[in-house]
Design a protein that fits this description.
Helix content: 10-25%
Number of domains: 1
Distance between the termini: 64 Å
Order of helices and strands: EHHEEHEEHEEEHEE
Largest sheet: 7 strands, mixed
Number of strands: 10
Strand order of the largest sheet: 4-3-2-5-6-10-9
Shape: globular
Radius of gyration: 18 Å
Length: 219
């Protein structure tokens, strides 16, 4: 009788450090969820904008900005190995940092300065954030007045299981109700527009799988 293989549950940083070499093979699948519909909420002109990618990984989102004339693109991620795979460019600054609140330290502010960014993008991130209020408050702080956070949240029904070095593992995630995400974003003083994305199951049936939140900072 074959024993069931034990699936390890890893912390976020360790899991993505393991995935760094193969993560690019998941890009098409990740792109398919939101189908790049967030692009219509981006500024029409990118010249001299300062953009931050919150959970940039190996640069999946950067593909959308690579041919633009940005002043700066800050790629923030918890995994050093993932950031090492992120494309390099004179405008790209890589920041190794865990965006979740560290309860063991007194200074819990993100290292990015106040009112720095014109646009923040954030996809497949909230699954790894325990403290939503902290996350949205910090995002609001680092954005300039009249700037925008574009955030995607995927309704993940089960953990993805990854193979690495003859072992299987899944990464520890957080499950948030969409209502709690929306309330935390609004509590941080963002004006929020919500777009829902559905996956067609059959001719007359579709399933809701994704939200895009367009979060504007007015001042």
């Amino acid at each position: 009788m074959t024993k069931n293989r034990v699936i390890e549950v890893t912390e976020v940083e360790d899991g993505y450090d393991r995935l760094a070499k193969s993560h690019h093979t998941y890009h098409d699948r990740l792109d398919s969820f939101e189908k790049w519909q967030f692009q219509k909420y981006l500024p029409r002109v990118f010249d001299n904008l300062v953009v931050v990618d919150l959970w940039a990984g190996d640069g999946r989102m950067y593909k959308r900005f690579a041919e633009t004339n940005l002043a700066r693109y800050d790629a923030v991620d918890v995994s050093k190995n993932m950031l090492a795979k992120h494309p390099s460019h004179p405008c790209v600054r890589k920041i190794h940092y865990n965006l979740d609140k560290d309860e063991d330290t007194e200074d819990t502010a993100w290292p990015m300065k106040d009112a720095t960014y014109d646009v923040a993008v954030c996809f497949f991130t909230l699954e790894y954030i325990k403290d939503l209020s902290y996350f949205f408050a910090q995002t609001h702080r680092i954005l300039k007045p009249w700037s925008r956070l574009i955030l995607g949240y995927f309704l993940q029904r089960r953990h993805m299981i990854f193979d690495h070095a003859a072992t299987q593992f899944k990464i520890e995630t957080q499950t948030h109700k969409f209502e709690d995400i929306l309330a935390s974003c609004q509590d941080a003083l963002f004006d929020v527009h919500v777009e829902e994305i559905f996956e067609k199951q059959s001719f007359d049936k579709q399933t809701h799988i994704w939200w895009i939140l367009v979060c504007d900072k007015s001042n």
